[in-house]
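Bench notes, afternoon.
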Amino acid sequence: MNYFTPIEANISMEDETASFSRITTLESDEDVMVFVETNYSSDGSKTFSIDVSSSNYSNSYSESFDLESVSIENYERVNQNTGQILVFGIRNKWYSGVVNWSVSEPSIQNLSTLNTGELLLVAIEHNYTQGSKTPRITAVVSSVQDEVTDYFSVTPLEISSLAVISEDRSKAVSELVVLNKLDDSQQFSWRLDTEIENITSSLINLTGNVFIYIGSYYNTEGIYRQVAVINSSSYDDNESIGVVIS
């Protein structure tokens, strides 16, 4: 937009791939629309600048943007406890060609040929072992990559609750709730360390959950820490709680 008297202005635009320049006459209060199309040969961070100058006036504008060549879309995880299903899409936003994508936990490496704008749908089912998991999905085209990281914990046999429901000067009653998250039954044993004694159990066959009530005795007043531990042939868990004897 020219806000002053008629001028002859030089309008130029420049980026990493090309430059454009044109001289035009602008009347007072006249504006001009300029369209420049650029084809980039690589993705990543880009910057372009626009300069307008005349014999007496000048102005400039610059902008940076990221040119994204690939994206991971609509990630979700279906939780089936030890079995997890990772579902996501990989979209090629660059020229038709090969997309290099991978998954950690489980370890998968793959190459897929996708057209421009094409979406690849992926579903991965994996049976995880017990513990914390951080699967990362990565997709790479040209020099730019996109990634998604998830976090979850697999606990097929779990102490869902440990609470002291009664306590006095010499004894306490604790409630231990154990949950079996598998469809099949599991055999497990439990142990409660009261700092005075270790109270143990024989094997228990469990489907679903079970409530266990444990009485413990103390000789002196004070604050004690109880630690509950459960074990099966494949899984384990533990939890702790404070007890006040007074």
